[in-house]
Each structure stands twice: as structure tokens, then as C-alpha cells.
Amino acid sequence: MEDLKAFEIFECKNIAHRLANHVERRIIGFMAVFETTAGQLVMVTTRRLGDGEPDYVPFVVAEPDPAKAVQLVSRVLAPDERARAICPLSAEAIKEFGLESGQFTNRWWE
Questions:
Q1: 28 within some domain
Q2: Residue 93 belongs to what domain range?
Q3: Which of 51, 59, 92, 93 lies in the 20 to 30 Å Cα band around 15?
Q4: Is residue 24 assigned to a domain?
Q5: Is residue 87 assigned to a domain?
Q6: pLDDT per residue as tens digits for the range 35-81
Q7: 95-109 burial code (b ≥16 CB/10 A, e <16)
Q8: Smallest Cα–Cα separation from 5: which of 38, 51, 43?
Q9: How many domains does the chain have?
Q10: Alpha-carbon gap, residue 26 to 29, rounded angstroms
Q11: Does some domain include residue 110?
């Protein structure tokens, strides 16, 4: 279980770094615990066909409550996919993706 937690922390930092680079500016305090959390980074685990390793797909969700953020994303997932909130996002980060409350995207790299 500790290995999974360490992996999630690593993935969260890795994704946050890529997100910050994507918007072409550094988002100060991106990984910090914010006074006002405006969203969540939700990681979706997708099983590959055969014996392959699972895929991990990050979703940026404009919902501060982790459980509600997971619920929102889960509505569009296949039955064998799992969603898990892994870190909070600031209002500034959510604004960078043009998301309104209750919206989410996994297309942050386009």
C-alpha cells in the first residue's frame, strides 16, 4: 500500500509539472495545499487488454470535494476503469483550463 501511495505522489508531481509547462508559465504553489481548493486532479486507471500494465489518465476536475470530483469523472468511465482523487488544485490552475464548476477535462495536452 505504501508503494502505491508513493507512486501516486510521484505521478501527481509529474503531472503537475507537465500541466504547469503546458500552460507555459509556472503556477506558484501548484502542489501546495491551498487555502481555497477549487478542483482536484483525478487519476483514472484503465486496464489494458491482455497482460499489459494499466494506463493512468489524469483528469483536471473543477470540483473541490475529492469524492464529488471522482463521482463526476466516474460517470464517463467504463465499468473496469477506476478513478481516484490524488491532489487538490488551486482556482488559478482550474482557470487555466477554462473550466467552470462541475466540469472536467483529460485533454490538457492539446
A1: yes
A2: 2-105
A3: 51
A4: yes
A5: yes
A6: 578 999 999 998 777 777 888 889 999 999 999 999 999 999 999 89
A7: ebbebeeeebeeeee
A8: 43
A9: 1
A10: 9
A11: no
